Amino acid sequence: MALLGAQLVITMVMISVIQKLGPHYSLARWLLCSTGLVRYLYPTDSELRELANIPKEKTKNRKNAKGQTNGTAKVDTFHIPRSLDIKLDSIKITNLDVIHLRYYAEYQWLIDFSVYASIIYWITEIYQVWFPLKNEINLSMVWCILVVLFAIKLLFTLTVQYFKGEESIGERSTCIVMGFIYLLISMMVLIVDESTLEIGLEDAYDSFNKSASSFLEKQGLSSSGPASKIVLKFFIAVWCGILGALFTFPGLRIAKTHWVLLKYFQDNRFKQLLLNLTFALPFVLIVLWIKPVSRFYLTERIFSGRTEPLMSEESFESLRLFLVVLTVVLKLVLMPWYLQAYLDMAYHRLENQKKEAGRITNIELQKQVAAVFYYLCVVTLQYAAPIVLCYFFTLIYKTLGEYNWIGEFHKQNVVTNYTKLNDTLKATVQADESKSILDSAADFHLTLDSLKSVFTKTVYRGLFGFATWWCLFLYFATTSFGLVYETYFSTL
């Protein structure tokens, strides 16, 4: 029986594509350099001197006995009025501009690897339509899990930056406070009855507990269960709190740029409607997991004039999956708008500075403008990583939970009687005294089947269903908090 089959071929082909075409074709590079993004150039010292009517100082070089210049060049620093009328020049972003930016390599790898993993996933899904995987390992899940781990690692790396330096006290405190707030919220969510919020963790725990106990008994070990429900929920809540802290500043950044875009398009009703729709879609997805509000009206209640509910249970599950994918696609399409709104912060900073009294050095003003473009890839990661997490958690939830995209549960022509299969494999192994390659494969299948009997689809539905819902909740909660803050404290 093939363990990997055609999936291994798909994976090897994609690895070859990454090696050959990756350096030449990149979605990440295209999003930054081919979508019309414009950056602002800081004014040079000569331009500032001319605007402020400051004469250029004559520099004197001190020479040593051999006639050579001594020392390093001195930085030309002078003061200018904050209210100086400065006009910033702008140019389109090119590949040479972004290649040296901080976190550009991480951003490019996250986006491009997500594209490759997504291609492998959809090819595998199409392949399963005609050739079910039977007892094979789904390698596309390995790619998806790698993307999830890499996205979490990048969010953690960006958050750690707020804990470095003496000037990050406010950001550090915000991350810690929000982490504890989301820890408390997650504890409240975990005690909500499954009939209200169908996250599926209760069924997942019961299934895991029973199957694990049965597995341990077969190994000659007596156990009532591998872990306490309270302990498991505590660790899940801690994970939720940490993830909430990681989502805090990405959510605030997205909310700020969203607020700026609403100001830009206040005369364009269609674009405002599109922006508000994409902003509200995560809330709609959160509501779809609240049973009395969504599933009851769509799959149980029969309205007047109808003989059956609006949707079947299977169609409802597919609807949730499709809406998550649609939300991710919309946010990816609108990504250049949000990035341009961020780049325009250089212009807005200078305009706000003109309303202030006092003076500022030329170096500080230039840093103020240049820093916006310098942190472009950081902001891009903060925008992309959360939606990448939501997207790939959804794919894992769909596949391991054995759902289908067309409204029916995924049915495969597989051997479901694992006990009979195990007995057959054991008999084959015992018949031969000498070990061979076939015997080793049989042992591996026995181990794989034992794991499948413990980690059932119910367990996966609970774990990854809750992970998907929690990421969507964090995305909406953090962006909503940021939008409320911008509404009352924005200076634009």
Automatic annotation (TrEMBL):
UniProt key word Membrane: yes
Keyword terms, alphabetized: Glycoprotein, Membrane, Transmembrane, Transmembrane helix
Annotated transmembrane regions: 109-131, 137-163, 175-192, 230-252, 273-290, 319-339, 372-397, 463-485
Compartments where found: Membrane
Main location: membrane
Entry membrane topology: Multi-pass membrane protein
InterPro entries: Transmembrane_161A/B
One GO term describing the cellular component: membrane
Family recorded in the similarity comment: Belongs to the TMEM161 family.
The protein's name: Transmembrane protein 161B
